[in-house]
Amino acid sequence: MAIRTGRHGPHIAEIVLDAPPVNALDVKGWFELADALTAQGSDPATRAVVLRAEGRGFCAGVDIKQMQSTSGFEALLGANSGCAAAFAAVYDCPVPVIAAVHGYCLGGGVGLVGNADIVVAADDAYVGLPEVDRGALGAATHLARLVPQHRMRHMVYTAESATAAELHAYGSVFAVVDRAELRDAALEIADRIAAKDPAVIRAAKQSLNGIDPVDVKRSYRYEQGFTFELNLTGVSDRLRDGFVRGDGD
Q1: What proportions of the chain, in percent to the nearest 5, are helix, strand and coil?
Q2: Is 163 helix (H, G, I), strand (E, B) or coil?
Q3: Which of 67, 85, 116, 177 has the fewest CB atoms within 10 Å, measured from its CB?
Q4: For domain 3-181+197-245, which architecture applies?
C-alpha cells in the first residue's frame, strides 16, 4: 500500500506516504490517503496527526505515467477527485495535522502541506508547482497559504520552487531541521498539542477553519475546471507525453 498508518502513543496518529520511487500517488493512493486521514481523525482517541513520507521526497504529486497509460479521461478524473478528497481530508480533519516535509514537495504534495495546520521541514525540502509544464493547473490555492501572493504567481508561471528556508522566513514553516530530526520535531509538536484538553483542541480546529478568508475546497475545484478545459484542447496530453518521454529533463 502507498499509505501506512501507525500510532505514537495512544493519542497521536502517524500517516506515512510510501509509494516508491518518488511518492507520486496513483488514483487509488489519493483515495487511500483521504480514507486514512478521515479514519484517524474520526477516532476519539486521536488528538493530533503527523503526516510524513519515506523515500527521497515528501510527494511528487499525481502519477502522470498512470494517467498517460490509461485511455480516455478516467485516470484524469480519478486523480482530480482523489486529490480533492485528500486535500479536503487534511483540512477537515477534526484535529490538527502536522506535515513533516523533506526533499521535494510538488503538485499534489503542495495541496496536502498547504492545508495542514502546522508545517515542519527538513533543510533539504522545497515546494513547487510544475503544473504549467504538464498542461494543468491546481494547488495555487494551497501554495498561496505558504507564500505571499506575488511569489505564488511567480512560482505558478515559471514552475520554479521555493526552499524550506524561504518558507520559514515567510512564517508558513514553523521550523527547519536536519533531515534526521524531522520526525522527532513533528512528534514533539504533536505531543504538545495532545497534552491539551482534546475537546478544546477540536473546537479550536473547527473555529479556525470557520474564520478562514478563502474556501479552500471551492477555490481548488475552480482551479481544476481550467485543467479540464486544457485537457479538452489536447495541450495537456502533449505536455504530459513529453514528460513521460523525458523531454527537457
Answers
A1: 50, 20, 30
A2: strand
A3: 85
A4: Alpha-Beta Complex (3.90)
